[in-house]
Amino acid sequence: MTEAKLWFLGGLVAQNLSDEDRASMARLERRAERRLKDPASTEVTWIRYPGKRKFLRSIRMGDWIVDCVKDGNSRYVGPPARVLNQEGWISSRGTKYAVLMLESPTHGKSMTLSQFRMKLRSIESKLDAPNPRTRPLESNDRADKILRLWTANGKVAKNMHRA
After folding, report:
1. What is the mean pLDDT of residues 93-100?
2. Which residue range forms the structural domain that includes residue 92?
3. What stretch of H or E contains 2?
């Protein structure tokens, strides 16, 4: 099993839930809110995957996640979020999902994938791709450098032109 402090999750697409599914997901969010370490400045967010993805077995509570989401024609890399837990969830259409519940900075800022790639080149060349794939960052040093691309409250760090 892979152990990593930070996971990069690629290939995600922004989606809107139906009202029924939003209400169902809100129950998972309320349960996860009890695990927030800093409820004053963080909130529960989530990422869902249909079925059971093999890599999800390696993600542990407390690991960091940086995700890349396609929204329309643009791709954005979100600020680091911490894994609270994993849940099973069934949509109103009966589709089974694995859901990663995350503690994310309430006012965090995403950067475009192109901005992320420019900052990343000297840190982790394997993520410097037009469609970066989901992968663990097993080097704590590299993981820390990527996490420092954002401030503690999730804003894009200004002084990080070069890592």
Report:
1. 96
2. 6-147
3. none
